[in-house]
From TrEMBL:
It is found in: Membrane. This is Sulfate ABC transporter permease subunit CysW. The complex is composed of two ATP-binding proteins (CysA), two transmembrane proteins (CysT and CysW) and a solute-binding protein (CysP). Part of the ABC transporter complex CysAWTP (TC 3.A.1.6.1) involved in sulfate/thiosulfate import. Probably responsible for the translocation of the substrate across the membrane. Its main location: membrane. It comes from Candidatus Synechococcus calcipolaris G9. It is a multi-pass membrane protein. SUPFAM superfamilies: MetI-like.
Length: 286
């Protein structure tokens, strides 16, 4: 006669629950509650005062300046990122790892230091200062300096998003197109670009988000002159320091909404990029 053993009961661990609670608590203290407070303060006096703050002359100029910075720097960094990604992912050459590290430099350098580097190069007492003064070209404390600072901090995103996609896709389809007589440009336009388009759009989206939200580097090179060289993040800080808290909160809400829109598009593009990579891997497997 055999005695049936009782079924083993797996003891439920408390660790996953504790980790989830810690994560929620941390996000609440660092992100969710502060963000919700900004929205509460912005609408504390009602929708009318909020909309009135968005019609202030300095706010409109700061919003316009932010838009112009994005319109100039995003296309430049998109073209650069594509060229850099193509060179790094499709070619092996001496110094490849060094070039990749240099592209990553804006991730590790403080934006304030980046702004200072530009001042030391293009400022009145910088290396190129005397020549720029002689040519009557103003970089620092003007829009060109703000463009340079924004381009520096948002430089790596397109390259960093496109490089892994190019490496995953491989060169088989490109080589097949060239075997059939396609030129390099036709191969890039009709084969490579459709394969990397979601990764490219993701990189462009991140570049745009960083360009619109940059504070430190732009603050150093712009001089933060209201109505002249003030972007939206600088306007938020300046309004808050001058006790115009409602204007500051209203502008912060606009920036936060831009970030939310960016997150929505980011999620959509991430899903499309993953699906595209899976399809490419399946096609190669077949």
């Amino acid at each position: 006669m055999t005695i049936a053993k009782p079924p083993l009961t797996k003891k439920k661990s408390w660790v996953p629950t504790a980790l989830i609670l810690v994560t929620i608590l941390y996000l609440g203290l660092v992100l969710i509650i502060p963000a919700a407070n900004v929205f509460y303060q912005a609408f504390a006096s009602g929708l009318g005062p909020f909309l009135k703050n968005l019609q202030e002359k300095e706010f409109l100029h700061a919003a316009w300046m932010t838009l112009m910075l994005a319109l100039v720097t995003v296309p430049i960094n998109t073209v650069f990122g594509l060229c850099a990604a193509w060179a790094i992912a499709r070619h092996h050459f001496p110094g490849r790892a060094l070039l990749l590290s240099i592209i990553d430099l804006p991730f590790s350098v403080s934006p304030v230091v980046a702004g200072l580097m530009l001042v030391l190069l293009y400022g009145r007492n910088g290396w190129l200062g005397p020549w720029l003064q002689e040519a009557d070209i103003r970089i620092i404390f003007a829009f060109p300096g703000m463009v340079l600072a924004t381009a520096f901090v948002s430089l790596p995103f397109v390259a960093r998003e496109v490089i892994p996609v190019l490496e995953e896709v491989g060169m088989d389809q490109d080589e097949a197109a060239q075997t059939l007589g396609a030129s390099e440009w036709q191969t890039f336009w009709r084969v490579t670009l459709p394969n990397i388009r979601w990764g490219l759009l993701y990189g462009v989206l991140l570049t745009n988000a960083r360009a619109m939200g940059e504070f430190g580097a732009v603050a150093v090179v712009s001089g933060n002159i209201g109505g002249k060289t003030q972007s939206l993040p600088l306007f938020v800080e300046e309004a808050y320091k001058n006790y115009a808290t409602q204007s500051s909160y209203a502008a912060a809400v606009v920036l936060a909404l831009l970030a939310v829109i960016t997150l929505i598009f980011k999620e959509i593009l991430e899903r499309k990029t993953r699906r595209k990579l899976r399809n490419a891997q399946t096609a190669l497997g077949e």
